[in-house]
Structure formats: structure tokens, C-alpha cells
Amino acid sequence: MFSYRHAFHAGSHADILKHLTLIHLVEYLQEKPVALTMVDTHAGAGIYSLQDGFAAVSKEAENGIYRLLEFKEEGNAIPPSIQKYLDCIGSENSGDLATYPGSPFILARMLRPQDRLKLFELHPKEIDILHHNIEQLDCTKQIDVYAADSFSRLKGLLPPPSRRGLVLIDPSYEDKQDYRYLEITLEEALQRFVTGCYAVWYPILSRRESAALPDRMKKLAATHKRSWLHAELRVENAPGERRLQASGMFIINPPWTLEKHLAEALPILTQALAINSGAQYLLKSMEA
């Protein structure tokens, strides 16, 4: 499980889908002045260099954030939803894009004085880097960092005192058990905090557990009589290619505005990031 490093995938198409969705969720939940508690269950290092280290080795950003920026620079129109995402990423860079903020930094930058952020990370090297990076922020006193297993600890944080919460769950899924742990964790979370907003990222792989995950989450939402939204982004269809070609987001208790937001963004992202003619997107939702 400790072979996975978030930095390998910094700025990839999967990050774009995840972070564009995440930004809108936070913006919507912050429309009310009540304090918001946000939890990132697999935080990684928080922020990454795209010029060296793991990201420079994988070069996934070249077919992700850099390709999207090139698409915009060519004069193609992009909706406000994508522009907000680009502005968020750009705010971490004084010039050309060289640094990519992961979910912890995106969430930290969006904190209001009344909000709190809880970050979990188990990787022994990532957690040290995460601590260091978070300590550089002005809002560090609003952030708790745990070197702990979020699957077992999440339920202890729920419900938050204000009853307003957003939970991002994005494990590596390198261990097949992550699919089972995810389902157990979501069930426990919904039992304790049924009105919380839960955003699950997952890779689309040729693995039985991966293919079954969306339907299992739909059944879980139905059991608790919760609405859901399911979005996927595929940038290519190349059987036998080992690199990640598609990923998805599954949101339980999504804001009513999210579907329109993604309906505007996903066709443009598919066009901008397509590697071959197999690029496509999916967007479905169900009311409780």
C-alpha cells in the first residue's frame, strides 16, 4: 500500500475531474454562514512540484492540466466552472504553472474563519511532507493532520458540531480491500451523519471491484434514501495500456447545482483532454 504516491498523478485528468467537482461542492456548502467541517481521507503531501520528482517522472500533467491550459490558450471557450478551477490552480503559481495543489491545499485555501479541515494520511513519507506543507499556511490552526487510518477513524469525527460537513474519500485502490473498506466506511458515516455530503473518487479499471463500485454506492444511497450524482471522464480507450484512462466521482447528497455545473464542464473537458476517439463522459443523478 505504501508504493502509491499522489505526486505521480498530480495534475492528471483524474485530478481535474476530482478538483473541479470539489471546488463547486465547497462553494455551494459555504453559501450558508454556518461552520463547515471538511475531511480529506487520503491527503497525500498536499501540494506538488510538476517540474521535478514523481510528477516529472510520470508526466501525467502533460495530458491533464497542461493540455487543458493549451486548449484555453488556443482560443477555445471554457465555462465558468473550468475557469474557477484554473484560477484555483494558478493561485499557487506566480508565473508559469510549476506547482499543483492537491485536495488539502485546495480545501485549505477555501477555508473561512469558522471552518475546519481534517486531513488523514498513512504513508510514512507523505505524512511528514504534509505536516511541513500545512505548517506553511496562514490557516494552519484550523487544520488537523492525522497519521491514521481514515477508514477506521472517520466515523469518530461525525457528525461535526455544526452538522455541516463535506467528506472527500479518494484512496489509491491499489489494495483491493480498499473497495470493501470504502463501502463499510460510507455505511458507518451515513448512519452517524446522513445529511453530510460525501464525494468519492475512483479509478476506472479493468477490475471487477472497480466496475461494481458505482452500483454498490447507488444501492447504499438508496438504502439511506439519499440523492446521488455519478460522473465519469474518459480521455482514451486503449485496451492493454497500463496508464489510467478514466476516473469517476460519486457524490451522495450532492447540491442541486452540481449537475448543471458538470453538464457544462464535462463536454469541454472531454474535448480538451481527448487522446483518441474513445474519449467520453458520463453524467447521471437520482433524487432521494
3D structure, described in words:
The chain is of the alpha/beta class. The protein has one domain (6-286): Rossmann fold, CATH 3.40.50. The protein is built from 10 helices and 10 strands. The chain has helices spanning 13-29, 53-58, 65-73, 80-90, 103-109, 124-134, 150-153, 177-192, 208-223, 258-273, and strands at residues 37-40, 47-49, 99-101, 116-120, 143-146, 165-169, 197-203, 228-234, 246-252, 280-286. An 8-stranded mixed beta sheet has the order 5-4-1-6-7-9-8-10, sandwiched between helices. A two-stranded antiparallel sheet has the order 2-3. α8 links the parallel β6 (165-169) and β7. The radius of gyration is 18 Å and the shape is globular. The N and C termini lie far apart (36 Å).
Q: What is the helix content?
A: 25-40%
End-to-end separation: 36 Å
| Weakly predicted, low-confidence segments | none
Briefly note the CATH topology name. Answer: Rossmann fold
- Beta strand count: 10
Report the CATH C-level class. Answer: Alpha Beta
Strand order of the largest sheet: 5-4-1-6-7-9-8-10
Name the helix and strand elements from N-terminus to C-terminus, one letter apiece. HEEHHHEHEHEHEHEHEEHE
SS element count, helices: 10
